[in-house]
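ZP: hey, is the zinc ion complex queued? I don't see it on the tracker
AM: it wasn't, my bad. submitting now with these inputs:
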Amino acid sequence: MHTAERTAADWFTEAQRSYAEKHQGCPWCNGQHRVHRVVQGAKIKFVCQRCDFQVYFDAQTKRYQFIRGEPLSEVSETMLGYPIYQDAPSN
Ligand SMILES: [Zn+2]
């Protein structure tokens, strides 16, 4: 459920909750054990290793910002970028 209407602040709240309740879960791709919480000075950042979703809050400027994650397909990550019709017999 990727609602485009969510604001960066909403995403941050979601990220915090997923991180705590879903064992480092990602609110974007909904997976677990993939989000890193990074503190950089006044910034608190949640970064997903899997879909590249990022959201952060800067306590100094009181601003939220987020970067959309990549849509994940059923295909394994290493297959991304290859044509999916490549399964024709090779001989
Ligand atoms: Zn993710």
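AM: back. The chain is about 15% helix and 25% strand.
ZP: great, adding it to the tracker
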